[in-house]
Amino acid sequence: MGLLLLLTSTLLSSYFHPGIMVDAQRIFTIRDITLSIEPSTDVVRGTNVTVRCKAIVSSFGQEVLSREYTIYKGNNKVYTKNSSTSEDLLYPLPDARVSNTGKYHCRINIKGEEMNSRVEKLTVTGLSKPVLHLDKDVFSEGEEIMATCTAPGETGSIFFYLHEGNNVLREGLVNTNHFETKFRFSRVGIHGIHCKYTVITMPDSFMSNESNILSVSVEELSIKPVLEIFPQTKIYEGDPLNILCTIRNLARPDNIHLYLSQGIKLLSSGNTKVNHSIVALASEPGDFECRLEMGNVAKVAAKTVLVTELFSVPTLTMSPAEVFQKERMTLTCKSEIASERLNRGELIYTLEPDSPLTPLAPGVFSGKALLYDFNYTCVAKAKGIVKRSETLTVCPKISVSTPKISVEGKAVLGQPFKIRCQSDVGSLPINYTLLKGYDQLGTISVRLPQPALFTVTITKPEEIKEYMCEAKNNHKNAPLSQRLNATVIEPLMGLTLTVTPHLPEISEGDHLYLICGTKGTPPVTFKWYRVGKEQPLHTTTSEKNNTDYQVPNLSKAHSGTYYCEAVNHANNIVRSEEVTIEVRLALWKKAVIGGVCLLVVSVLVVGSVLYFRSKRGKREAAAELSVKPLRDL
User: Fold this and answer.
1) CB–CB of 16/83 below 8 Å?
2) What is the distance between the alpha carbons of residues 581 and 531, in angstroms, rounded to a whole number?
3) Which of 412, 418, 484 is nearest to 454 (CA)?
4) How does pLDDT run across 108-148, given as a tens digit for each residue?
5) What is the CATH architecture of 28-125?
6) Which segments cross the bilayer (predicted)?
């Protein structure tokens, strides 16, 4: 702040006292800068437009500061000028075009200090109509055409399009107002073409109207390919075909190529003539083509040949439709005779590859099916013509093996359980039938490699051995499994709790036995409980139907109510009735108590006797004393 006051006072002294020269840096400030577009921001094509940049700068002294102006269109510099005056900068756009459309702003720079104006957008509308020009209007087939499309008076980046109707022939981006291109027409006749263009002003673009339409006449060349095929009619398989591809109206043999093809297969090629011979086959396409190429011109002559079959493609069938390994089967190969030129005896049938099947008659082969899948193809031959049938894959089925029967999980008496039936080998589908004795209970068809599961319930353990299963897969044999051999679990029932010694005889110091017994299939898990406690007193698993829990050296604390529970693999829990145990005193304790009681009674009796005797003596003594005075009297 002090430095600023010092400089200010020095400059003022210099101003009011010219004789004093002060060499100090000029002080200035850029107050504002604005950009305006004249006559308007929206103008039509051809208007003279001026972009004005006006800056307001404050400074000490009368000398005007040197300033640099820069005008931008978008992010691109379009004009730069240095000025030593305070006059506005003018950027003229005479005869404005659509390409001048864009966003403009200006920047001022004075001794490194800069300021930018706000952005103003100029929009110029209106495009000139494009003009199309051709070097001539009549062309020969394949001749190159030169076209020029012009956008009169337009500037900037222009994208041109050359059209025939709605089809784009050529297109291209240039930075001039005209576009030149070359092209050819592939078709003869009259063609109407026009052009148009787009002026690109990122991010916008402006499309022009269409130009004038010019008619172009493309005349066909007299040169033509000629295709000849001999013979022309009644062509049978095996007949030789002579094919000739030549040129008509050949003026000069320069730059000419001929191509002879059948379908997509190229048979031969040459310059002015192609001759080719083949054997006619009904299986191959009868479409022939003679193609002439001369520079950019291509002409085609085509013919279709109808070839009559001598015999049809053979068909190969098998009987029976399904065959098992090592069973006899028959393959039959047959073709239809389609021409009077062929006798059936001339047709020879064979099988590929070689197989152990024996021929029984023409086209009939018999033998045993192999142990594995095998592919057969029938080959029919006559007069040099060979035809093959579609491949027949014989998949011999495997006869089903003896099924195995078992219990899925466990078999519990009186509860539903599953019987599993499955063969180790056998072609699917397999039908499994469950039998009890020889009565069929049900059949399950299995189409995946998985067992058949049957649900049954038995009421007696010996019933389990009555079950068998049968397996069948269309083979004549239907093997039967062995009888089902499995353990049957009998649920527990009738659980009892026996106490030893007998309840009235249980005394302190005795050895107590709590015996649990039940009916059912072991192993059995027994648990003993005392009423009032959730946890069991003892748990054990036994391979027998009964076991015990012992309590040695009983005391009065063991008195209470007891019961037991049991469970086996049938998962049904049974519970005994509750038994109340009262532990009595030991015999010696009873004897001691009795002796003590007798002693107490004896003492009481003796004391009473002595007491009464003492009382009696006192009375007698008193009586004697009272009698003695009387005696003395």
Assistant:
1) no
2) 11
3) 418
4) 999 889 999 999 999 999 999 999 999 888 888 778 889 99
5) Sandwich (2.60)
6) 591-612
